[in-house]
Amino acid sequence: MIFKKDKFNEECGVFAIFNHNHASAHTALGLHALQHRGQEAAGIVTYENGKFFSEK
Hints:
Blueprint: H1 23-34, E1 44-48, E2 51-55
Antiparallel strand pairs: 1-2
C-alpha cells in the first residue's frame, strides 16, 4: 500500500490492532464502536505473510 497523503481528507474513524492474541474480538468491538459512521463506507485491511488484503 502506498499512502499519498499524510492525513485523511474526511472525518473518519480509524483504529488498528497489531499482533494481539484477541485481535478478532477487539476488531469486532472497534467496528461496533464505529458503526454510526455508516456501513456504506466501511472497509478492513489485514496483513499476513508480507501481504495486505483489503475489503470494502
